[in-house]
């Protein structure tokens, strides 16, 4: 299991220290939540703060857009040279075009699904993407309770992926802890995003290690 700490749960006034702590603790990438106050009822930090991260560490960045009209945000964050950019299927009328735009920037495109969204809409786009992000809470906030039906969704998605694009990875985001990580692994999860579970613990090395099942 690869582990991506969500910096949404970091202390933004001590961001450098918090980022270093999870990088030194052995995480695989940093998950960055971008919100616009429209697609989700919250805001996070913008590119002028985030562009400092690549100067701090070469760790791969994984950007999760929770915004309306993602195209202009892709341009705004492309300078960070992230490994992944995830776009919500619910926010895009022209998802295929957006995916091509991300790919053209040499960034791996991913599609995110809200908890109520069925995997069926991925059928004809799965061959064009490198990752699916299954939201296991309603997006917008850290520290929420894991939605159990996400396990069934990941099981079904794994089956679809094996048939249509076996190289596509599955990422889950929200409410992930050491108590549900094994069930997620058995369902077919590749990358666990965890915010509060990692950042609320003093020993972040132990927290990350407990998710690497
Ligand atoms: C929620 C974000 C998540 C969030 C996860 O909208 O997408 O990345 O930070 O936080 P936890 O792990 O605390 O549920
Ligand atoms: Zn996220």
UniProtKB/TrEMBL annotation:
E.C. number: 5.1.3.1
Family stated for the protein in its record: Belongs to the ribulose-phosphate 3-epimerase family.
Name of the protein this chain belongs to: Ribulose-phosphate 3-epimerase
Binding-site list for substrate: 6, 64, 140-143, 173-175, 195-196
Active-site positions on this chain: 33, 173
NCBIfam families in the cross-refs: PRK05581.1-4, rpe
Cofactor section: Zn(2+); Co(2+); Mn(2+); a divalent metal cation
A matching Pfam family: Ribul_P_3_epim
Alphabetized Gene3D superfamilies for the sequence: Aldolase class I
Record pathway: Carbohydrate degradation
Reaction it catalyzes: D-ribulose 5-phosphate = D-xylulose 5-phosphate
Entries under InterPro entries matching the protein: Aldolase_TIM (IPR013785), Ribul_P_3_epim (IPR026019), Ribul_P_3_epim-like (IPR000056), RibuloseP-bd_barrel (IPR011060)
Species in which this protein is naturally found: Helicobacter saguini
Keywords: Carbohydrate metabolism, Cobalt, Isomerase, Manganese, Metal-binding, Zinc
Single GO molecular function: metal ion binding
Function of the protein: Catalyzes the reversible epimerization of D-ribulose 5-phosphate to D-xylulose 5-phosphate.
Organism phylogeny: Bacteria, Pseudomonadati, Campylobacterota, Epsilonproteobacteria, Campylobacterales
Cofactor note: Binds 1 divalent metal cation per subunit.
GO annotations of cellular component type: cytoplasm
